[in-house]
Amino acid sequence: MKKVFSLFMVLLLLVGIVAGCGAPKRDEGSSDKGTGTDDGAKSEEVAKPDKLLVWVNNEDKQKKPLREIFDAYEEETGIKIEMVGVNMLDQIQSLALDGPVGKGPDVFFQPHDRIGDIVLQGLADPIDLGDSAKDYSETAISAVTYDGEIYGVPLVTETYGLFYNKDYVSEAPKTFEELQKIADEKTDASKEQFGFAMEAANLYFVWPFFANNGAYVFKNTNGTYDVNDIGLANEGAKKAGEVVKNWFDKGQIPVGITADTLNGLFQDGKVAVVLNGPWMIPGYKEALGDKLGIAKLPEINGEGAKSFVGVKSWMLSAYSDNQYWATDFMKFVTNKDNSLKYFKEAGEMPANQAALTDPTVTGDPNIGPFADQIQYGEPMPSVPEMQQVWDPFNKALELLSKGEDTGVLDEAVKQIKDNIAAAGGGQ
């Protein structure tokens, strides 16, 4: 790290020398770069651009309400919003090409777990939300915070919960012990009947059982992850690993279960309770009708279950010359009223706290439980090193499902560290 810092200082000195010799600069005439603050008087000081270019995810269900919200911003400010649909997962490569030549957007849209990589590529600038940061759920703000700075204005959040068949259980289990009792009493693997099922060899879904026992992916201190401190094989992780192993050893969850297998069993009425996400609401409702119940996850060790939370947010291009108004625009799109409008039409849960706790959301029998669960969840780490975690740890979970002991978690952590080092991360 010291070598990297020294090299950085040398480069910084060289840049300063070049700048002092009259190197060409960005056009400063219309730029408000670095002024995306919460100062109300600033709006009168910073000249309005004629337009803002905004890349949105190229999905019709999302674009329709966004266009209506963008039109309202145009009417309020006089700034034209040029909306361009670009597949969310293709935006980064396009921005890397278009941004440097002045063809990129002012604002783009991304899932939070890609923020670390985006920042390291120099494609996004931090956003000064000021007091407005309090308008969003703590989980959402935590998700878009990288190295202590906010890089996204959250629009939507997503997590998972419980679905249950009322033919088997009258109400959802409220504690892990109640859930385990259902698994113990209502499983008959010989008849393909199960009390509880989930993709238990998938870190994303099984995470609450690890987190609530004291495991962690990377040590997180005030939004800064230490990728050299991995807590996936500590005492709490081993305890959770035994829980997972027990489900498979007793035949309470089928070995090799996939999303398709899980959904097929539940829709065929062969499982009492499953853990899954809100994207399955339409399919489950069609199959079970009034027999379907939905609830937040049960408490684990006396606390709300710490499910992984995904956040999709607006980001500020590092190539934008309109940072003040781009920030103003992002805050407008994600205010309470517009967040609720987007929720009603696109069906995605708000990240705005007032919207997330509004009766429109909490009173929805389908979505309300997931909105409740968000309050207990924790964001997936946004550092690039997270990409080195999934495969080794899921492999360890698969080995647990086949009878291996929890020593496989130590092996997974070693593999993760090796992968991070090979990718140039860590120390």
Structural summary, described in words:
The protein has 427 residues and is an alpha+beta fold. The chain has 18 helices and 15 strands. Strands 3, 6, 13, 14 and 15 form a 5-stranded mixed sheet that branches. A hairpin with a 2-residue loop joins strand 4 (145-146) and strand 5 (149-150). Helix 3 (60-77) runs antiparallel to helix 13 (336-346). The radius of gyration is 24 Å and the shape is globular. 44% of the residues are buried.
Beta-strand percentage range = 15-25%
**Radius of gyration (Å):** 24 Å
Helix content: 40-55%
Number of separate helices: 18
Please tell me what the overall shape is.
globular
- How many strands, which pairing sense, and closed or not: the largest β-sheet? 5 strands, mixed
Q: Strand tally, please?
A: 15
Low-confidence stretches: 1-31, 34-38
Query: What is the mean pLDDT?
Result: 90
Please give the alpha-carbon distance between the first and last residues: 7 Å
Protein structure class:
alpha+beta
Features:
17% strand, alpha+beta, 427 residues, 41% helix, 4-stranded mixed β-sheet, 5-stranded mixed β-sheet
List the helices and strands and how they pair.
Elements: H1 2-20, H2 42-45, E1 51-56, H3 60-77, E2 80-85, H4 91-98, E3 107-111, H5 115-120, H6 138-143, E4 145-146, E5 149-150, E6 153-158, E7 161-165, H7 176-185, E8 194-197, H8 203-211, E9 216-221, E10 224-231, H9 235-249, H10 259-267, E11 271-276, H11 281-288, E12 292-295, E13 308-316, H12 323-333, H13 336-346, E14 349-350, H14 353-356, H15 359-362, H16 368-374, E15 378-379, H17 390-401, H18 407-422
Parallel strand pairs: 1-2, 8-11, 13-15
Antiparallel strand pairs: 3-13, 4-5, 6-13, 6-14, 7-11, 7-12, 9-10
